[in-house]
Amino acid sequence: MTCGNSTYLDDHGPPPQKVLPFPSQVVYNRVGKCGSRTVVLLLRILSEKHGFNLVTSDIHNKTRLTKNEQMELIKNISTAEQPYLFTRHVHFLNFSRFGGDQPVYINIIRDPVNRFLSNYFFRRFGDWRGEQNHMIRTPNMRQEERYLDINVCILENYPECSNPRLFYIIPYFCGQHPRCREPGEWALERAKLNVNENFLLVGILEELEDVLLLLERFLPHYFKDVLSIYKNPEHRKLGNLTVTVKKTVPSPEAIQILYQRMRYEYEFYYYVKEQFHLLKRKFGLKSHIRKPSPRPEFFIPSPLETEEPINDEEEDDEKWLEDIYKR
């Protein structure tokens, strides 16, 4: 028998470990002009409501990283308090390559021409958050560039309206390899592979409410109640401030040229859209029939869109989700 003061550990044993939800490491490497500012607004509300660690970055214009920068960023993300959701505009990072635990990735993309047009006018004229917003964002832009007609930019092959600048969405999924920035089959196929192996969900901005529903289903400890918050009139008022101003539509000829230049982007977009619709069918969500946009014959056909929920054989949803998390 020993004498002396007993400690808390003597009486109670070690304190119980914090039980983490699974997955507890999520990365949203958000694609520019694909609704990400709206989603980040929602995440700020959700992180306070559900108590997860929202890790954001002030770096908005550095998507390609050197090997050392990749290692440093992966280290910083991996040591964040869990459960965390890290978000930044950055091309896909392979954590396991540097000895880290691969997190679950999520993302949202949109029609490539619409994304390009939104970005073109946003860089010049900003959004409804402030009339001078564009001046702050691009203070050194020359007046002739700021007011450059979109048709002139496309038809006269200005760098901003040509490749490789138009090859924008695929590198977010292909990764940091130099070939990921070269428009072509290699980058396209690698991007598809990463979507299948590392992304829990890649949604389509045109169907944002369904994206939010699936995120709530797959990641409830992050996204529970997201749709009701999104539909709240107060949030809608905030969301409207992120709408780009002064957008104009290019001529049909210019649009066709953009389609040609962005053919790999479209092949990827329709691939992701098809996967997203398969996921919606699996969980009984309706797809709304939209008028198909005109596009050249080389594009892959649109996926079948269901009007009614489809109940296949009763599949164990939890088991199916588990399999995705194990990838």
From TrEMBL:
Residues 305-320 have a biased composition (Acidic residues). GO terms for molecular function: sulfotransferase activity. It is found in: Golgi apparatus membrane. The keyword Ribonucleoprotein does not apply. Residues 293-327 are annotated as: Disordered. It is a single-pass type II membrane protein. Gene3D superfamilies: P-loop containing nucleotide triphosphate hydrolases. Keywords: Glycoprotein, Golgi apparatus, Membrane, Signal-anchor, Transferase, Transmembrane, Transmembrane helix. Pfam families: Sulfotransfer_2. One of its GO terms (cellular component) is Golgi membrane. InterPro entries: Heparan_SO4_2-O-STrfase, P-loop_NTPase, Sulfotransferase. Belongs to the sulfotransferase 3 family. This is Uronyl 2-sulfotransferase. It comes from Cyanistes caeruleus.
